[in-house]
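Supplementary Methods S3. Input chains for the assembly prediction are listed below.
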Amino acid sequence: MPEPLLRLDSVSRRFGGLQALDGVSFEVGRGEVLGLIGPNGAGKTTLVNVICGVHRASAGRVLFEGRDITALKPFRTARSGLARTFQIVQPFPELTVTDNVAAAASFSRGLGVREARLAALEQLEFVGLAEHGQRPAATLTLAMRKRLELAKALAMQPRLLFLDEVNAGLNSAEVEQAMALIRRIAGSGVTIVLIEHLMKVVMSVCSRIVVLQQGALIAEGSPAEIVADARVVEAYLGKKYAQAAGSAAS
Ligand SMILES: Nc1ncnc2c1ncn2[C@@H]1O[C@H](COP(=O)(O)OP(=O)(O)O)[C@@H](O)[C@H]1O
Ligand SMILES: [Mg+2]
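Predicted structure tokens for the full assembly:
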């Protein structure tokens, strides 16, 4: 067995009396696009925060490329090769689009001003924001801010990228564009963990899916296995979705 890129070993996190993550274990293989799904409040964002070092795990271990990164702070995990987008997009609003991306590159890779700027321009081109580089980030539309988030994460040159609801609030044309970008990123060799509510997106881009409910992992498998899983249907997808998926497949 090749070593997984990421391994979670009984990861737990408490917030006061709330068990936000409860002994979560799974692996992410190199080159995978892994879907991470579950109801609101299931612990998906918290899991990303724990892995990236924003929150500390209350128990358990996180291994990246075989190395224990459980206690590392965000800038250390970023330098180790992890990047993530934020569910709530949070650019520096006064800075230009280019400077926002350059700041991310210099934060994670320790680049000087010139190199960081070049890295930023390259990623803005990739996500289709090249013409908007001089605008203050605050003036972008939501769809553009989501792409800016993506450019910032890519400027960190991650080997593992967490995408936290990058399609939330987008219209269907914008979702199509985002899906094409995600496929291109995956095609370039970056391993992706995709947190996503739109099952259409999950089903079409993910090779495997894990499901969280109330902080616990309740299912893990291929997209076909997950939509047929009685617990997942009960906890998240709902019977209507299962019937629709079943009739679409037959
Ligand atoms: N910083 C925090 N402090 C206290 N509770 C939190 C914090 N972050 C998340 N939670 C709680 O942890 C649970 C999981 O939240 P979250 O990870 O955001 O879920 P998801 O991303 O799956 O919707 C929720 O009940 C949420 O209110
Ligand atoms: Mg979330």
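DSSP finds nine helices and ten strands in the chain. The mean pLDDT is 93.
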